[in-house]
Amino acid sequence: MPLSPRFLPLLFPLVLLTACSSLPPLPATPTTAQRPTPTATSGSVSFSPEPVGALPDWQQQDLTTSLQALRQSCRVVARQPQWSAPCQGVSALASADNAGIHQFFEAHFTAWRMHDGARDSGLITGYYEPILNGSRSRSAATPYPLYGVPDDLLSLTLPASARNTGPWVARRVANNRLALVPGATQAGPGEVLVNPADFPPESRALLKGRIDNGRLVPYYTRADLAAGRGVDRAPVLAWVEDSVELFFLQIQGAGRIQLDDGSTLRVGVGDNNGYGYQSIGRWLADHGEMPLSAASMSGIQNWVRLHPDRQQALFNVNPRYIFFRTLPGNDDGPLGALGVPLTDGYSIAVDPHYIPLGTPVYLATTQPHSQAPLNRLMHAQDTGNAIRGALRADFFWGFGAEAGMNAGGMKQAGSMWLLLPNGMSPSL
């Protein structure tokens, strides 16, 4: 989502999703006169402690909605010893007591500012939950299929020691999951040969494939599926009006389909075809089709509308394909990688190598297409294939057209602080 589950992931980043070397400047924020020596460091990434009360615009923050998001996180992180007591305290707070919520965080948490070498700000993008028009049946108005998970799509997790050697023998241990057969060199009945060299190097930790003549081979690419290869093995969950919106639904990892019978179908990432994400925004910029600064979701959509004959070729630049599953229909946000519903405007997708899921993160950035400050206590509840690095986040705006406009226009500089219970340090 991202969503990642962002979804997978999911989870998204809207389409550009590239490291930015010329970010707009972040407005000056109050800091301590001399930053304490970082106490948690890994490579170029480090964290330095600061009082929660010294965070930019902290005293002006309305934390009541952020508290709701934290309670969602506590459904998961409260199982960890360091979080048990804070989550018990959170459950006792009055939801509307903004002053009490401030006091709670100031008394029980330490803010850890993130640094990557000399940088203490990075790229903040946005994502959202789109809503598409569709139908349960195919028609001239709804010709584009939204596919569920194919029944021949198989997964195999390879240990690091097996990713560049082989071939190996695997057998099915669940409906769609394979496992290596220790010591086997030849496939017996019900077993399959696996050669990691057949798969892209970046995809060898988790192979996604199908069986062809006794071998596990890579699953179909986006171009293959667009040409009709393998689609007979995938159920159609709905038919939608717009192929461009369907592509961006895959980027976002979750969305809603407004059906012609008046009902709403909610969908999220079910699985993927195993290929790495490739940015079509970057491709357009690299090929001189538009400046990199214009390669936002809305900019790419405009380009596609002006070049309908090149639409599928552009989409095929990204071989990754998302298959969906239906989700319960309710008013909660989509499920993020943490396994809890995302909260509009208070959830972010992060790189879990640097920010553990469930951690409160204070974000100091600016509004989309603006230098107006956007400082807020967010919660790391999702991941995304293109959200990589310590100073990188994807801001969840909610669902619908307005959320899409904000998400599509967000490409801001931002600084981040992890808020951890007193006595707990960042772990890298």
Give the structure's gist in a few sentences.
This protein has 428 residues and is an alpha+beta fold. The chain has 9 helices and 21 strands. Pfam families: 3D (PF06725), MltA (PF03562).
- Structural class comes to alpha+beta
Rough outline? globular
| Termini Cα gap | 23 Å
Q: For the residues shown, what is the average pLDDT?
A: 88
Biggest sheet descriptor: 6 strands, mixed, barrel
Quickly count the helices.
9
CATH superfamily of the largest domain: RlpA-like domain
How many structurally independent domains? 2
Q: Oligomerization state of this entry?
A: single chain
Q: Give the neighbour order of strands across the main sheet.
A: 4-20-17-19-18-21
Q: What CATH architecture label of the largest domain applies?
A: Beta Barrel
Q: Which blocks of ≥5 consecutive residues have pLDDT under 50?
A: 1-38
